Amino acid sequence: QVQIVESGGGLVRSGGSLRLSCTASGFAFGYYPMSWYRQAPGKEREFVAEIDRVAGTTNYADSVKGRFTISGDNHKNSVYLQMNSLKPEDTAVYYCRLLSHWGQGTQVTVFL
């Protein structure tokens, strides 16, 4: 059974940084892309970033380009999201996705 577990969320002042982690287990997922999404209160879930862990290529939503960096560690079955220059509008539950599998999410709250 596939399990996706996120961690690293928290409360941070505007302009600060957080690093989210996502670890997958129960699946030989070494060759599939993994991605981060987020959902703010009252809004739909939206794409944040994706990494192709074979080619090493990445893709970002326009709203986070230049501030967020996605990376992966295939040996640890993990992907990470380094978030810098955080803004209040980044406040959301952040979810990790592998194919049709989702984690439970981790809360990120940015205050002024």
- Helix share bin: under 10%
Q: How can the largest sheet be summarized?
A: 7 strands, mixed
Strand content: over 45%
Radius of gyration of CA atoms, rounded to a whole number: 13 Å
Protein structure class: mainly beta
Distance between the termini: 41 Å
The coarse overall form would be: globular
H/E element sequence:
EEEEEEEEEEE
Instruction: Give the mean pLDDT.
Output: 94
The number of E-state strands comes to 11
Put simply, the count of helices is 0
Which regions contain 5 or more consecutive residues with pLDDT less than 50? none
How would you describe what is shown here?
Helices cover 0% and strands 53% of the residues. β4 and β5 form a beta hairpin. The mean pLDDT is 94. The chain has strands spanning 3-7, 10-13, 18-25, 34-39, 46-51, 58-60, 68-73, 78-83, 92-98, 101-102, 106-111. It is globular and about 40 Å long. The strands form two sheets. Strands 2, 4, 5, 6, 9, 10 and 11 form a seven-stranded mixed beta sheet that branches. Strands 1-3-8-7 form a four-stranded antiparallel beta sheet, with no helix packed on it. By secondary structure, the protein is mainly β. It is built from no helices and eleven strands.
